[in-house]
Design brief:
Bound molecules: 2-amino-2-deoxy-6-O-phosphono-alpha-D-glucopyranose
Number of strands: 10
Strand content: 15-25%
Strand order of the largest sheet: 1-10-9-6-2-3-5
CATH architecture: 3-Layer(aba) Sandwich
Structural class: alpha/beta
Oligomer: single chain
Order of helices and strands: EHEHEEHEHEEHHEHEHE
Distance between the termini: 14 Å
């Protein structure tokens, strides 16, 4: 795994955004997957700016959602859908058919998994995936103990994830399950970026780098991907 430590969050986001821009320049119909959560918000802003400035053309690109809280939809503040649309998709001139995103309000999560798996299969491969690292090492909603052989699947959320979720919702919400791309799906991506920012992520970033690959820390399960880079700011890389 390559490690790239940037000075601060703006520099980190600019560098991650440039990776996405380069991917689309090389392959205009690229399939792009960027996590929800707080970590990539600056990447979204940088990509919107690049689109407005004509430095990237997303008109032929495709976007894939990484994960979602089951039971939450677009109208629920802090859902992945709400965050990604608000900060990114709503600000770009995209057509609906360019986006595939888990529906957290589905009555049939298994069918939803199949739908997303089929979308990925139709595109053959995710060209670039930008992942955040959760406080417990989760990537997407691949929680500690996850199998590395999963494609899209429903997840029982880890207590750490349930506790951390308050920061998105602004209040405790009864979220017990999520739906997520699996480790196998993610590992099949052509290019992978593991992104982390801030001192509070420094311990899990160090564990990700220093621990043998283990499902106890899901972020370690992608370390041997042939084209993965851990991109962090100095605060998140402080224990490396
Ligand atoms: C959340 C999301 C993930 C995200 C990760 C880190 O629970 N489901 O998509 O990448 O955990 O979140 P954050 O960037 O807010 O720290």
């Amino acid at each position: 795994m390559n490690i790239d430590i940037k000075q601060d969050y703006p520099e980190l986001c600019a560098a991650v955004a440039q990776q996405v821009i380069d991917c689309v320049a090389a392959k205009p119909d690229a399939l792009i997957c960027i996590a929800g959560g707080d970590t990539p918000l600056g990447v979204f802003a940088a990509l919107v700016e690049a689109s407005n400035d004509g430095r990237v053309d997303f008109s032929r690109a495709f976007f894939l959602g990484l994960d979602e809280w089951l039971g939450l939809g677009r109208d629920d503040k802090g859902s992945c859908r709400e965050m990604v649309w608000h900060h990114f998709f709503d600000k770009l001139p995209l057509r609906d058919e360019q986006i595939c995103f888990f529906d957290g309000l589905t009555n049939d999560p298994a069918a939803e998994c199949q739908r997303v798996d089929a979308f990925i299969a139709a595109h053959q491969q995710i060209d670039i995936v930008v992942l955040g690292i959760g406080m417990n090492g989760h990537i997407g909603f691949n929680e500690p103990g996850v199998s590395a052989e999963n494609t899209c699947h429903v997840v029982d959320l880890d207590p750490v994830t349930q506790a951390v979720s308050v920061k998105y919702f602004g209040e405790p919400r009864d979220v017990k399950q999520g739906i997520s791309l699996g480790i196998k799906t993610l590992r099949a991506a052509k290019r992978m970026i593991l992104m982390a920012s801030g001192e509070k992520k420094s311990a899990i970033v160090a564990k990700t780098v220093q621990t043998e690959s283990s499902s106890d820390i899901p972020s370690t399960l992608v370390k041997d991907h042939p084209n993965v880079t851990l991109m962090v700011d100095r605060a998140a890389g402080g224990q490396l």
